[in-house]
Amino acid sequence: MNNTIISLLIENPELKLAFKSALLEILEERHDLLTDIIEEVVEDIALKNAIKQGESSQAVSRQEIFNVLGGA
User: Which of 8, 29, 48, 60 has CB 3.0 to 4.6 Å from 64, enough for a Cys bridge?
Assistant: First the structure.
C-alpha cells in the first residue's frame, strides 16, 4: 500500500472500518491465504538462518555432501 491509501484510512474512520471489514471477510473466507503467507514467511526466515549459518561454517567437498545424503 502506498502512503496515500494509508493516510486516507487513518483520516477517514468510515473508510478505515470498511477496509477492516473487507480484510476480515477475506481472512474468514480464505483462511488458506493467511496460512500460505505464514508458511512462506517461516520458510524465508529458516532459509535466511540456514544461509547465515552456512556462511560461517567450514566448507566441505561435494562428495562429503553426497555421503551425508546417502550417495544420492
Answer: 60
Phi/psi at 12 (5° precision): -115, 100
Rama region for 61: left / alpha / beta (φ>0; ψ in -120 to 50; rest): beta
**pLDDT tens per residue across span 29-69:** 988 988 999 999 999 999 999 999 989 999 889 999 899 99
The domain locations on the chain are: 3-68
For residues 59 and 71, give the distance between their C-alpha atoms in angstroms, rounded to a whole number: 19
Please name the amino acid found at residue 44.
D
Structural contact between residues 46 and 53, judged by C-beta atoms closer than 8 angstroms: no
Structure confidence at residue 17 (pLDDT): 87
